[in-house]
Amino acid sequence: MLWGKSSKGRSKALSLLSTIISFIFVGLNPAMAQDEQPSSIDAAMASVLSPIADNLSSFVFYKVQIAGAEVSILVVWMAVAMLFLTVYFKFINLRGFGIAKDILMGRYRDDNAPGDVTQFQALSTALSGTVGIGNIAGVGAALAIGGPGATFWMIIIGLCAMSVKFAECTLSVKYREVDDDGSVSGGPMYYLKNGLAAQGKKRLGLVLALCYGAFGIPTIIQWATVNQVYAQVNTVLPMDGWVFGVIIAFLTGVVIIGGIREIVQVTSRLVPFMVTIYLGAALFILITNITEIPMAFYTIFHLAFSPDSVAGGILGVIMIGMRRAVYSTEAGLGTSSMVHAAAKTNEPVSEGMVALMEPFIDTVIVCTITALVIVISGQYTDSSLQGITLTSAAFESSISFFPYILAFSVFLFGFSTLISWAYYCEKIWTFVLGRTNTSKRVYKFVFIALLIPGGVFTTKQVFDIIDSLFFLLTVPNIIGLYILAPEVKADLERYLRKLKDGRIQKNQPDQA
Questions:
Q1: How many helices (H) and strands (E) does the chain have?
Q2: Lowest-pLDDT range, 9-18, 101-110, 172-181?
Q3: How far apart are CA 330 and CA 324, in angstroms?
Q4: Buried residues in 152-174 as b, exposed as e (16+ CB within 10 A)
Q5: Where are the beta strands (DSSP E) in 379-435?
Q6: How far apart are CA 253 and CA 123, in angstroms?
């Protein structure tokens, strides 16, 4: 726990946390205090959220004029960090592929190493949080707003995001802590606190860790995932948004009560299955329209550099691609590093190698395939389609019954994303509010309950909210990564030397 066990310290933490959350969710919206008599529960909740989402997004994504385009300062903040770390680590995002493959095949596996799950299971669980709604609804949202050109910038950003993910997960394993019950806790909170303390910057580390925790707890509202799953399921099985919320909240609760071992058992099975279903349908469409793929790539590339229909031109479409790519990869947020911290390994860098595969799989591969299907269909020109409805319409244009397949796939994607985020948010919650059993039980109840209203809001509302919360997390996290980057680089060079001179022996490949 960040502030120790004293009631005074806990009171201070709770007070500061309450102030920050109140500022984010209420202070930006004075109209919240007004009494309204909406005609329905759904309408009432949507009308309350709308001004909050607008004001929060305007605050977080404050824009300045650059070359005639409005550019979000926080988006530039992330872009610079991705480019810097990619160059600083000498393009580890590209040269680490072979090593990552060997690790995942079990060639460096050590069953006696500390940790809760295998490195393959850690990757599967992390992918369940990234390969999902961001690749289906997120790509649809990007193309609806920024056109096909946004795809190109999502790919470029995804490649650079691999370097950020490498650094986050290396540090998360290096500075993880073992709880009283033997489970492992890690993530930005711990490498900010412990990593900076090791450099003699204890106070700065505590401040950054607290800021991360304060910004992280509001991400407990995983409305974007629930909303987009509901949007697709509702097309084939109509129901009220809050009813769907109750159903998915119940199913999520059944899994997360079991803890990380139960979560990885589910996700390590769900991820390959759901990716096979979704990508199988996508590849079928691409193969049957194989002659149109070159033109689709041309359209994506051409509009990436001449997006005449997008406000702000090239810079405008880059901003859109950046927001969607960060949502898809989670690179810079540090969240998926929490599950990588639980991996069985004595070499932190090895888990960083495994983790850099995430953005490549979820953005460079899955997002590109989704975008190609949408571009080939031509549905992106329909302004009435947004988010997952655009993706669904694109697939339906080639497979008439695909909305039913997509509803099933999206439900699995969304479900796996929720249980992964339940784990991430629990680690943030317990870091700030304590790791006691009572704290964990309260957290699980709150997380489950807050899923229920997700289906009643609009696509714009939920993405404005979740984008804003996600990008706030990048502020303390990226500051910490800049400070700790030399340490990660030294650890990387040391690890590569150990591989080269045989101090780390290869095992026979086995099933992870």
A1: 24, 4
A2: 9-18
A3: 10
A4: bbbbbbbbbbbbbbbbbbbbbbb
A5: none
A6: 22
Record the tokens describing residue 432, joined without a space.
């700030």
| Interatomic CA distance for residues 113 and 111, integer angstroms | 6
Paired with 71 in beta bridges are 64
Mean pLDDT taken over the chain: 76
Nearest to 85 by CA among 428, 433, 482, 512: 482
Asked if the model's pLDDT at residue 356 lies above 80, the reply is yes
Phi/psi for 142 (5° steps) reads -65, -45
* Residues 354-378 as b or e (16 or more Cβ within 10 Å = b): bbbbbbbbbbbbbbbbbbbbbbbbe
The tens digit of pLDDT for each residue in 379-425 reads 777 767 766 677 778 877 777 777 777 777 777 777 777 877 888 88
Question: Which amino acid, residue 473?
Answer: L
- Size of the chain in residues: 512
Q: What is the predicted pLDDT for the residue at 392?
A: 76
R_g over Cα of the chain: 22
In the three-class reduction of DSSP (H, G, I as helix; E, B as strand; rest coil), residue 117 is classed as strand
Q: How confident is the model at residue 314 (pLDDT cuts 50, 70, 90)?
A: low
Give me the CATH topology for the region 78-500: Amino acid/polyamine transporter I (1.20.1740)
- Return the closest-CA partner of residue 336 out of 159, 139, 511, 470: 470
Report the phi/psi class of residue 385: left, alpha or beta, with left for phi > 0 and alpha for psi in -120 to 50: beta
- What is the average per-residue pLDDT within 139-152? 75
Tokens of 232: 């697709």
Kindly list the distances between the CA atom of residue 509 and the CA atoms of 30, 345, 378, in Å, as whole numbers in the listed order.
60, 16, 44
Q: What is the pLDDT of residues 83-137, one digit of tens each?
A: 899 999 999 988 888 888 878 776 776 666 666 677 777 776 666 656 666 667 6
DSSP 66: E
With CA atoms as reference, report the closest residue to 166 among 118, 95, 109, 76: 95
Q: Which residue bears the tokens 């997700």? A: 454
